[in-house]
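Most newcomers find our protein records easier to grasp once they have seen one. Read left to right, the backbone structure tokens trace the chain's path through space. Once this layout is familiar, the rest of the handout is easier to follow. The record below serves as our worked example for the rest of this section:


***
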Amino acid sequence: MNVVRNIGMLLMLAVLPSLAMSTTPADLLAQGRADEAISSLQNEVKAHPNDAQAYNLLCRSYFSVGNWDGGIPHCEKAVSLEPGNSQYHMWLGRIYGERADHSAFWSAAGLARKLRNEMETAVRLDPANVAARTDLAEFYLEAPGIVGGGRDKAEAQAAALETLDPAKAHWVRGRLAEKRKDSASAEREYRAAIEASHGSALNWFNLALFYRHEQRWSDMEDAIDKAVAAPLDRPEVIMESGDVLIRTGRSYPKAIRLIQLYLSSKSTVEAAPAFKAHYLLGMAQEKLGDKSAAAQEYRAALALARNYSVAQDALNRISR
């Protein structure tokens, strides 16, 4: 019944007039209209050069399309204008992290230190910033000690999260258990996160990701079904579930249905931009052998974000 209720709610939202959608830069970003958001925000910072929020949003717009070099100066500007803003430090840390992931070793090491500094600053400025603590814990989990990583530091963040967001604390401990190759403990932690969150979609999806890593495909698909049926605390879970099904080759038609459902909801969010959803639909159609439908979706992605390079690369590939 939860599946029916959630799908019904999304389809009702889909029939709302498009004119009702807001067109502030933040809403453009949430709607996945990256080009419009960037253009609007470029005009905003020209007109109001001390508007830290506009610089932060402009950075996030570049972040959404994978243009780390384009976004970093704007996140840095937001921090320089409001150095006491925890959220701005968090976003600067995030974009440093993405740039590091796409850099050579020595550049990546320097960026990783910058990431750590920004996330630690974000947590110091606002100890209740759950997103920053979670990102910081993940950095400590993944980074080598030479740039400040350490599992003991990740555990300290889990302990701090216990009172702020118990489900996040369990998620961090699940990740720690995975790092120790302790699959049984990891699964218990991810299930504890589901219980602590009263069955949230995000935590069912996190369990699905764990099963994906374990190559427990039937369990993964079952967890995805439960994520989609759960209360929709995080709409991006619907699109990301489709993404997982595509990348694991489990069910392209089901992935298409989920991503189309997400797009039709008119409830797209920054974490899962509409242009990425169209790109994923293109991937699924391409896997099914329908190059015409795939090209249509890749073009739809580029119509929203003309510099979304993965969509352009995909369109070029199937157009040869």
Q: What stands out?
A: Residues 1-21 have pLDDT under 50 and may be disordered. The CA atoms of residues 10 and 261 lie 7 Å apart. The chain has 18 helices and no strands. The two ends are 46 Å apart (CA to CA).
